[in-house]
Design a protein that fits this description.
The protein contains 16 helices and 15 strands. It is of the alpha/beta class. The strands form three sheets. It has a seven-stranded mixed sheet, with no helix packed on it. A four-stranded parallel sheet has the order 5-6-7-8, with helices on both faces. The longest helix has 18 residues. The relative contact order is 0.16.
Length: about 400
């Protein structure tokens, strides 16, 4: 066992909420986990004697490290030209049916090397880390063949090896029908379920499985086949659902006890009820809502009424949410979806942790949990959802280790 490290003189929010800060708090870390936390003047003297290192945070605010539970961080190229087309009046569906959208990113991702994908994704990941993000979910889905899906997931694993951040991988082979399977969606689902998923699972590259259940994606029957395949391998599932229309995908996902259903602009009360019964998290993606200039918002009032946990994520991707800023998503969740500050902050901490489904990540600060926390240069927790474009994270600590890309605090 290593000697304890003490972090002191902080204003501590153990669950990322703006109320009930512990003033002049201290936090003791042993072997990457929290051994003690509370008011500094209550810290037992016996615990301090063996401390090997002390960090004085000078009354900075500390929250759990932020969690981005829905990203498509790894991709080749960009889709700036499609952005211009949408500004000229083309819809997302029209662009997709003309060979743009997801399949255009597939073409670009297939042609670049693994090292090139790694380099571009690392820049995006570093931007997230700089904003206090300590855990990130990364989906595949821009390969749509075994070789490229493998390449993407290998890059995701590499990112977790070179940065002090928790990476969770999600296989999204059922993201779109590739051009070589045009008109043969069922045959492509055969490939996803019978060849791609088994191979990638055997290689240890998959933590969860996702599917895009939508009119321009996959039908309910096709989506269910993907969920069943994941179930055979003991993998948790997620679903892109009810983004562009109401298909009942959320209720389907809930029947398979999905970790999350994501987007949800067209979600109805039956779907909300199913989510509550299954314990499925609603992951809202205000960046995509904003970028696509959508007008139908997710049913926030229903989610509140039924007590469904609401998470917030960047949906970082080249086509519909080209953003790495989870702090901006906090602001958008409040301004566009009318979430309260505390609801939004819960959405990037404890509720995002539940949607991530990763055993190492809790989205809270409690004795026995891993010491994953962010140190902020703000006067109140509410400022995290208030500022846009202004760096506020002073330090990021994951599993008790200081991220070297953030500025170190003064050590005594």
């Amino acid at each position: 066992m290593t000697k304890p490290v003490l972090w002191k003189n902080m204003r501590l929010s153990v669950d990322g909420q703006s109320s009930a800060l512990i003033e002049s708090a201290a936090l003791l870390v042993v072997d990457g986990r929290i051994a003690w936390l509370g008011p500094g003047n209550a810290l037992p003297a016996a615990l301090v004697r063996d401390v090997s290192e002390t960090h004085d945070l000078q009354q900075a605010i500390v929250t759990p490290g932020l969690i981005d539970c829905h990203t498509h961080l790894i991709f080749g190229g960009d889709r700036a030209e499609e952005f211009a087309l949408r500004l000229a009046g083309a819809s997302y569906e029209e662009i997709a049916r003309r060979g743009g959208g997801i399949v255009s990113s597939v073409r670009a991702t297939r042609t670049v090397s693994e090292d090139e994908l790694f380099g571009s994704a690392l820049r995006r990941l570093d931007a997230m880390i700089a904003q206090g993000v300590s855990a990130v979910e990364i989906k595949s889905g821009y390969g749509l063949d075994l070789a490229t899906e493998r390449k993407m997931l290998r890059v995701a694993r590499r990112l977790g090896q070179v940065r002090n951040v928790t990476i969770s991988t999600t296989f999204l082979g059922a993201h779109a029908v590739p051009l070589e399977y045009a008109g043969r969606a069922d045959a492509y689902i055969d490939l996803v379920c019978e060849q791609m998923l088994p191979a990638l699972h055997d290689e240890g590259l998959v933590d969860a499985v996702d599917v895009f259940c939508e009119s321009i994606g996959f039908s309910l029957a096709q989506s269910e086949r993907v969920l069943q395949a994941a179930q055979r391998y003991g993998l948790p599932v997620k679903m892109h659902a009810e983004q562009l229309s109401l298909m009942g995908g959320t209720a389907l996902a809930a029947r398979y006890h999905a970790l999350s259903a994501d987007h949800l602009e067209y979600l109805d009360e039956a779907g909300v009820h199913a989510m509550r019964e299954a314990g499925t998290v609603a992951v809202l993606l205000p960046g995509a809502f904003y970028f696509l200039r959508e007008t139908k918002t997710p049913p926030i009032a229903l989610l509140r009424e039924y007590g469904v946990p609401i998470a917030i994520a960047t949906d970082c991707n080249p086509g519909t949410s080209p953003s790495t800023s989870l702090l901006l998503m906090l602001n958008m969740a409040c301004t566009l979806f009318r979430l309260t500050v505390d609801e939004a902050l819960a959405g990037v901490t404890r509720h995002a942790a539940k949607a991530l489904g990763h055993a190492d990540v809790t989205g809270r600060l409690a004795v026995g949990d891993y010491a994953d926390f962010a140190v902020w240069e703000v006067a109140s927790v509410a400022e995290l959802a208030y500022w846009t474009g202004l760096p506020r994270c002073r330090q990021l600590v994951r599993h008790g280790e200081l991220d070297l890309k953030t500025r170190p605090a003064r050590a005594d």
